Amino acid sequence: MRHPTRCRAVRSTLRHRWEKERTHADLRERRSTGATEQETGLPTGRLAFRAVYDRVEASADLAAALGVGTGTALLRRTYRTRPAGEGTPLNVCRSCLPYALAARNPELLDASNEPWPGGTMHQLSTVGVEVARVEEVVTARPPTDAEARELGLAPGVPVMEIRKTLHDVSGQVVEVADILLPGDRYAVRCVTRL
Predict the structure, then answer these.
(1) Which of 36, 132, 169, 189 is a Cys-bridge partner for 12, taking CB atoms 3.0 to 4.6 Å apart?
(2) Which domain holds residue 87?
(3) What pTM did the predictor assign?
(4) Model confidence over 98-146: pLDDT tens digits?
């Protein structure tokens, strides 16, 4: 059963081109809006954003995805954004960057700098990384009990899980993010320009 007052969103593959173009925009433009505002149509002031950073060791899965050794230091950033007035997030994103890469700009290690104007692609540009390719794999599955509670899901509502991988111009993976979307509030729109 869909809750009638909850915000809905559409995640489009066009967001990646928009985010990359913004890496070259001035600070005022980058602060004016973000990807969640684009997906929901809500202005920045109607969204509540929370970021938690921690240093973790790469699990076997993340090490393989990032092309690093198991146990390599990673900067894990957990993002939750919700519409102001709603108690549950629109999504939960856990992003991992090689810690040594992020540490090239100490501002990237400080969660109080979030939301970062221009997002991850702009953050990476501050350490000399240009993103050339984005890969997203979307799967649907039943949520865990903890995920259902966190996202405020009714029984039987699935989640969509996205594994997003950013590659730089040399082909090196520079970020792996696992994004959890509530199936009753999100649609994924894939656009291929031919």
Answers:
(1) 189
(2) 9-189
(3) 0.89
(4) 999 999 999 999 999 998 888 999 999 999 999 999 999 999 999 999 9
